[in-house]
Design goal:
- The chain is about 65% helix and about 0% strand.
- The chain contains four helices and no strands.
């Protein structure tokens, strides 16, 4: 059982870069630029993550999609953005990236 879990973790680590884009703060050249960038990125996503509840249904409405699906997706996106933003906020001294899906994060990148 331990081998299966270990294999699944290794497999997920190799597939993660394919599913998510790198966070914008990773483009910093020095440790200081990366740490400050990660702190700001985490703070923005943590504090403003709830805005996805409003913006996602609006995006769905503009695209001619079902607004109620946008409400559900907005609730999910708000939770993901807020939680992963908090992870970035807490771990800002460590310049390792935990990417937020590009269609969910507030930076739009």
């Amino acid at each position: 059982m331990k081998k299966i879990i270990s294999l699944a973790i290794v497999f997920a680590m190799f597939l993660a870069p394919l599913a998510f884009a790198a966070s914008p703060w990773t483009e910093g050249k020095t440790y200081g630029e990366k740490a400050v960038g990660k702190l700001g990125y985490g703070l923005t996503n943590t504090v403003l993550g709830w805005t996805k509840i409003i913006s996602t249904p609006n995006d769905y409405s503009s695209a001619g999609k079902n607004v109620w699906q946008g409400v559900g997706q907005g609730l999910i996106d708000a939770g993901v953005t807020t939680v992963l933003g908090a992870v970035h906020l807490v771990t800002f001294p460590i310049p390792a990236d935990i990417p937020i899906p590009s269609d969910v994060n507030l930076s739009g990148k």
